[in-house]
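Review form for a predicted model. The reviewer records the input and the model, then writes brief findings.
Reviewer: anonymous (R2)
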Amino acid sequence: MTDLQKRSLLKLAALSAVAAAALVGCGKKEEAAPAAPAAAPAASAPAAKAEPLKIAFAYVGPVGDGGWTYAHDNGRKAVQKEFGDRVVTSFVEKVPESADAERVIRDMAAQGNKLIFGTTFGYMEPMLKVAGDTKDVKFEHATGYKQADNMRTYDSRTYEGAYMAGVIAGKMSKTGTLGVVGSVPIPEVVRNINSFTLGAQSVNPKVKTKVVWVNEWFNPPKETEAATALINGGADVLFQNTDSSAVLQTAEKMGKRAFGWDSDMTAYGPKAHLASAVINWGPYYIKSVGEALDGKWTGNTASWWGVKEGAIDIVSIAADVPDETKKRIDEVKAGLKDGSFSIWKGPITDNTGKELLAKDVVADDKFLGGLKTYVKGVEGKVPGN
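Model under review:
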């Protein structure tokens, strides 16, 4: 075989090997591209923040009255402090007990308030009417007695504070004649006048009480006039069931003694001031709003809180009140708190001699809620009775 032939055979073999390699390469499976890393799970969207509960308060007097309305507004502030941005509170002051009350309360509901407090007896019928028309709103009425599925009532046992004030008055009076400036002659106010007198009689059985009615909750000029008349009639210690500080201020000017009512009124007449029977609405308001926020609020119920629940107290007792009297006040408070003492326990008669409670009989709330006559020692008759 010639060199030329050998070279031809080698060249052919080389070409065959290249072709075979090409065929093998064409038959190889293509490897899958590496999988892209899995996407990170999307962060969950933050839960939508609940809208604050809108709450409105209707006040019969000005927030600066130093008494009833001032105490309610302190309760409103306690709610705002307790629940922060979970609630939004507002109020309308000086809402008269008339057709205007319905207009104001209806407007509160229209503005999106879902819990509405009406803070005086005269709002009962207007609130009941609006409650019937706005079932998605909750209504709370102070001092009333009518309820509905979306309306309930609440009150404080102000007669407990009145009784303790009476204990002090009976000890401090030099003439034995006490004077009371009454607001509106409803059982609530009659009960307070009577309880004040019973407290005074517990330390001085010969005490008598005179009453002048002004037929309004807040009217400083009328309250001043009534207080002046009582002092001119021989009363040397004054008590009130009105909302301003006018009675205490009148006693200060005329050199007599008196009490603060609903709020601590010491500053209005420091020389005349014997003590203040106060209401703390904060605990009840906080409870009510908490129930509304938690979906536990229910209508058709009534609450009546006193010393036991921390709603009633007597504070800032004057330095010249004897220690024995202060000790007696402490005993009364303790007894009211643990249930061992009852203010309304027989025998008790009215001022005509008719028996109201037999010996050792303790009045129930139904009896207390329907008082329409004066007890022994209170002069005159309840207007309209």
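Findings: The CA atoms of residues 373 and 382 lie 6 Å apart.
Further findings: The radius of gyration is 38 Å.
Recommendation: see findings above.
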